[in-house]
Amino acid sequence: MRATVMYGERDVRLEEVPDPHLQTGRDAIVRVVAACVCGSDLWGYRGIVPTERPRRMGHEMVGVVERVGAEVEHVREGDFVIASFYDCDFTCEVCRSGFSSACLELEWYDGCQAELVRVPHADGSLLVVPQPSEELVPHLLTLADVMGTGHHAAHSAGVSAGGDAVVVGDGAVGLCAVIAAKRLQASRIVAMSRNPARQELARELGATEIVSERGKRGAEIVREMFGGIGAQSVLEAVGTEESMEQSVRSARQGGTVGFVGVPNGVPELPLRPLFTRNVRLAGGVAPVRNYADELLADVLAGGIRPGRVFDLQLPLSEVAEAYAAMDERRAVKVLLRP
Amino acid sequence: MRATVMYGERDVRLEEVPDPHLQTGRDAIVRVVAACVCGSDLWGYRGIVPTERPRRMGHEMVGVVERVGAEVEHVREGDFVIASFYDCDFTCEVCRSGFSSACLELEWYDGCQAELVRVPHADGSLLVVPQPSEELVPHLLTLADVMGTGHHAAHSAGVSAGGDAVVVGDGAVGLCAVIAAKRLQASRIVAMSRNPARQELARELGATEIVSERGKRGAEIVREMFGGIGAQSVLEAVGTEESMEQSVRSARQGGTVGFVGVPNGVPELPLRPLFTRNVRLAGGVAPVRNYADELLADVLAGGIRPGRVFDLQLPLSEVAEAYAAMDERRAVKVLLRP
User: Fold this and answer.
1) Which of A18, A299, B82, B152 might form a disulfide with B127, Cβ 3.0–4.6 angstroms?
2) Cα–Cα distance between A150 and A312 in angstroms, integer?
């Protein structure tokens, strides 16, 4: 089969590799219907994170189950499934407490930018959905990661009906955080973005205000917008020290930063600004599997349309172009069809 | 009057200084009945934080109001009062939302290790209580800071009935955090302490278990004690990078670190360990004024006896010995009588 392999800075190739096979009785093999490129994939592509050895890429996909192991009970051959970006048994204490992304049985799997994928803990990791229309596929694909991650930012930041939400980051996760804040009925949703096209998309998805400044100045403007003291809920969707500091500065005394941007490198956060203003920090690797049922219901009902973050679709054979388009910010997020 | 002045490393003196006077119509002058030395006062004493110019010391006291400004409405001459360690108007939006320690009108005052103190925003900063017995004074004094701060750690960490609480730090705030966890009906309360006398006191105050190891090893033991995954609520009462890391490592996936230890220097926290395990961080400068009413009710009813953290009482004239006793860990916390 064909799969995407990262070799190093700006060197991503689609290659012929051996087909995956069942390794345990709890595995499933899934034939990919749609996959995509994640903002965090770009760190290796840009050389920010070194690629020490060739690495299979991709951790988001929807597809059709091709084979299941002998112990798999709830997933069957032919099922259409959404795969969470991590595997989980969905039965351990940590999964049950709402944090399946830190499942005690976590193995990490990837290689979703491919034709076939082996998914461990198939019963926990895969969400079976009714065979969808073509139109629905991009929306379902976001439940593998970005929509669940945007929701985690909003949920962690305590967004609630009538409240506020300031979203730092205008990538796919930031835009999904806007959708999530609207879904939770925030009355003021500020998108921080310098990009006119993304500003417009953010508005369409629910942003009520836009701030195009960044850093200290951007945070100062946010504080001015919210009574001179800042926002109760700040949704951080970037993962750099700069974006974290901007987020903390944008929060009011006693406010919360919900952070879901994958830490880029080994960022550290100064404690004093959190301490003096009692700003809370919550978030992390989004437990998208725990959120999938409620978000799926809204996708199926047409209440949210998170697939709109895909502004480019390419065949898997053009995966290198998909990375380039996102790297050059010509695309927010690229959907790939094997 | 006499007041305590820090000159530099291990150089604290009681000196004759001018009496304070009302500077605004909202001030009060309070005659100190009891004051004390805070763990954070030791940073200057130990030279960890440089003393650039002589500085008046102390931010915790109870006393009797001697004079009030023309605009003061709720506090009268002769009232017995508890002074929060910070001043606040207790009417601004931030105070009302529960974070009076970040009051929009905050001036910071100190100099409580003295005979007289000027307190700004007297109506907000001072809590009037019925004239207490001698026996009650130490307990009331803790509401100026340490008991409220221990409660803030527990509250921020989400301690609840039947839940857990791991307390990092065996100083007066850590011991008050134990009291607070017991008051909130945690069923397992772990005190992390290497000091036998403090271990015993922690047990008397409500700790159900003791861990004497520190750092990575201490956190490993805590994780083992809690199902191999760690505690839901960790109460950090030290303020160093080491204690923060120990706290984060002790928390379970999705757990919360309530941190109230004043950051010592400019500590930074690595984001990745928070991110990968979804550990939340909450806390900061404790809004003790917001907690004072509920804690006072329990002190007056005898439900909590936080004054037990004072294991040495000295006359104000021996303030230098008070600092030395705490510096050398001969005393947990010293109460001073002018």
Assistant:
1) B82
2) 20
Q: With H, G, I as helix, E, B as strand and everything else as coil, classify residue A43.
A: helix
CA distance B263 to chain A (A): 6
Q: What CATH number corresponds to the domain at position B98?
A: 3.90.180.10
Interface mutation target, options B240, B241, B278, B288, chain A, most CBs of A under 10 Å: B278
Tell me the per-residue pLDDT of A27-79, one tens digit each, with 9 for 90 and over.
Answer: 999 999 999 999 989 989 999 889 999 999 999 999 999 999 999 999 999 99
Question: Are residues B154 and B132 part of one domain?
Answer: no
pLDDT at B278 over 90: yes
ipTM of the complex: 0.94
Q: Which of A81, A230, A115 is nearest to A165 (CA)?
A: A230
Instruction: Say if B280 is an interface residue toward chain A (CB within 8 Å).
Output: yes
pLDDT at B262: 83
Phi and psi based region of residue A47 (left: phi greater than 0; alpha: psi -120 to 50; beta: remaining): left
Average pLDDT over residues B23-41: 96
- pTM for this one? 0.95
- Alpha carbon of A262: minimum distance to chain B alpha carbons (Å): 8
Quick check: B269 and A266 CB within 8 A?
Answer: no
Element (H, E) at A336: strand A334-337
User: Counting one residue from A and one from B, how many pairs have CB atoms under 8 Å apart?
Assistant: 111
Place of tokens 């006896």: B305
Both A135 and A161 in one domain: the answer is no
**B115-136 mean pLDDT:** 97
Q: Which tens digit of pLDDT belongs to each residue from A293-329? A: 999 999 999 999 999 999 999 999 999 999 999 999 9
The range of the structural domain enclosing residue B154 comes to 147-283
Interface contact A97-B254, CB threshold 8 A: yes
Q: What is the CA radius of gyration of chain A?
A: 19
Q: Which residue of A has its CA nearest to B232?
A: A97
